[in-house]
Amino acid sequence: MFVDMVQMGRIEEGQCPARRPVFLRLHGVAHGSLEVVSDLPENLQVGLFNNPGKSYPVWVRYASDIPDGVPDLKSTVGIGIKVFDVEGEKILTPDEHAPTMDLLLQNIDIFFVDNAKDMCEFTQASFSGESEQWLKEHPETAEILEEMAKEVPSVLETNLWSAMPFHFGENDFCKYKLVPEVVPTGPDPDYGDSNYLHADLVQRLQNGEAKLKFFVQLRTNPGTMPIDRATVRWEESQSSPIHVATLVLPQQDITARGQAEYGETLSFHPWRTLKAHEPVGSIAEARKVAYQASAELRRNVNGEPIGEPQVVRPDTVWPPASQGCQPNQ
């Protein structure tokens, strides 16, 4: 539904290149590493984290869930993390043997509807001009949408969550959280600049290295930490997030030639993961189909190959392009 109504509609209006239907406002693409905690307890050595001390190369994409032309201020911010050199069969077809795994997080720890049925109803109401009435009938969703519209001074200084649950091995479930640990200095936020989050990210990563702790929050109480009620918070007072890895983004120029373009060709999918981290819940099931259809449509329209990169893009800083250069022309 969302791909047909939003993404295809924009393509039919002449959008070029074809973009993602969600989180299409790009703030920046960066290279780095995901480093598993070296003294990780044995019970947490699961899937991606089964080798303490291992360092995975990554590329990350920071974005907001708004279209171009809309100010960054009070937009929902997210990150897509493409992890490379991940051994083991993945769930998503036809990428079972791809060496990559994806992690997606955003700056709120819950979702604005409980399940896939509510998501479809809300989407339909939005496109039929009945969203105001739907929100009156679902005040909890209205409250969460209001909570999502918050000021974000810097994407590097912001806590991010998966919001959705995942398997953690055979018998456990978890959610993910990303917390800033070391953030380079940057400018005061200029909320009058409609693209201030990009400017901030450029400046901070030019100034130094960023480190963000990656946590898993295990489900300890099924009664208060449900799987298919995405509006319900998993309270940290019941289960404290556990540090399992660190995302390191070295000092770099994210405006370097080809860097943003590379990130925009990547597909980020919550089901491109190991069986040990399988997504759960009806919204996850709906995303499995929608995300793949969206990526395939975008790449087909843009003339890009469908499939996962087999090797990580080098962090080479290429000479700047000549003024007026048009890619692929």
UniProtKB/TrEMBL annotation:
Per the record, the domain of life is Bacteria
Name the segments for region: Disordered: 302-329
Region forming the signal peptide:
none
Q: Which GO terms describe its molecular function?
A: heme binding
PANTHER family xref list: DOMAIN PROTEIN, PUTATIVE (AFU_ORTHOLOGUE AFUA_5G01990)-RELATED, DOMAIN PROTEIN, PUTATIVE (AFU_ORTHOLOGUE AFUA_5G01990)-RELATED-RELATED
Q: What is this protein called?
A: Catalase
- What species does this protein belong to? Moorena producens 3L
